[in-house]
């Protein structure tokens, strides 16, 4: 039976990505399948959460697939955005925000775009 695995993010610097994403999402590195060009990050329960794969592909300014990181309030969103920036994320000059956006677009240290979504302001929460 076909099953959905976990997201994999292509990065140019695997150790830097490991440092960012483990701190950002409170994950740990698994020894499973570890190599110079691959790391699996796992949660406290041991489940595979995120793969990091060495890549030389250019960053997509408007990626068709990205990560959404979820928070429950505007205050939590503001705090998490600040924390992620302290870890090395950066603002993206996102020109596609809707009126009253429920998300903030950031880039990880490799430039991969991701969103921090305030579920209290999300369209599905209205």
From TrEMBL:
Alphabetized PROSITE patterns for the sequence: VOC (PS51819)
Chain ranges of the VOC domain: 3-119
Highest taxon, organism lineage: Bacteria
CDD domains: VOC (cd06587)
Protein name in the entry: VOC family protein
Upper classification of the organism: Bacteria, Bacillati, Actinomycetota, Actinomycetes, Pseudonocardiales
């Amino acid at each position: 039976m076909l099953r959905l695995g976990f997201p994999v993010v292509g990065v140019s610097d695997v150790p830097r990505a490991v440092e960012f994403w483990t701190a950002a999402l409170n994950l740990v590195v698994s020894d499973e399948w570890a190599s110079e060009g691959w790391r699996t990050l796992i949660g406290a329960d041991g489940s595979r959460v995120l793969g990091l794969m060495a890549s030389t592909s250019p960053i997509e300014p408007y990626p068709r697939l990205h990560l959404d990181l979820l928070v429950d309030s505007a205050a939590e969103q503001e705090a998490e955005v600040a924390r992620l920036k302290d870890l090395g994320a950066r603002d993206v000059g996102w020109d596609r925000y809707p009126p009253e956006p429920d998300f903030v677009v950031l880039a990880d240290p490799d430039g991969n775009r991701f969103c921090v979504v305030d579920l209290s302001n999300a369209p599905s929460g209205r």
